[in-house]
């Protein structure tokens, strides 16, 4: 069962809530809505997903074939952007 405390309760008993968060996540509410989750650092590290690097993404995309439909859709997107974008006149002194 999840433990939920109000932000007022958290402010009044921060050390107690911190100790409880070592065992399980604590949901902190404000005006009846969850605004934060307090958990142990170890649990945070386990839950955090490692973001792939640009090199990893590029290597994966190089291995996958890109369809002609994708290129056509991409080209159409560029055309739409160019139509909706007005060039700005730059004045040099």
Gist of the model:
It is built from 5 helices and 3 strands; from the N terminus they run βααββααα. The protein is α+β, with helices and mostly antiparallel strands and 93 residues long.
Keywords:
elongated, alpha+beta, 3-stranded mixed sheet, 93 residues
Structural features, described:
The protein is of the alpha+beta class. Helices cover 52% and strands 16% of the residues. It contains 5 helices and 3 strands, in the order E-H-H-E-E-H-H-H. The chain has helices at 7-12, 14-21, 41-47, 54-63, 68-84, and strands at 3-6, 26-30, 33-38. Strands 1-2-3 form a 3-stranded mixed sheet. The model has no long low-confidence stretch (mean pLDDT 83).
Topology summary:
Elements: E1 3-6, H1 7-12, H2 14-21, E2 26-30, E3 33-38, H3 41-47, H4 54-63, H5 68-84
Parallel strand pairs: 1-2
Antiparallel strand pairs: 2-3
Main sheet makeup: 3 strands, mixed
Work out the radius of gyration: 25 Å
Question: What's the mean pLDDT score?
Answer: 83
Low-confidence stretches: none
Strand order of the largest sheet: 1-2-3
**Globular, elongated, flat, extended or rod-shaped: what is the shape?**
elongated
**SSE order, one letter for each helix or strand:** EHHEEHHH
How many strands?
3
State the helical fraction: 40-55%
Alpha-beta classification: alpha+beta
The N- to C-terminal Cα distance equals 68 Å
Q: Roughly what fraction of the amino acids lie in strands?
A: 15-25%
**Multimeric status of the protein:** single chain
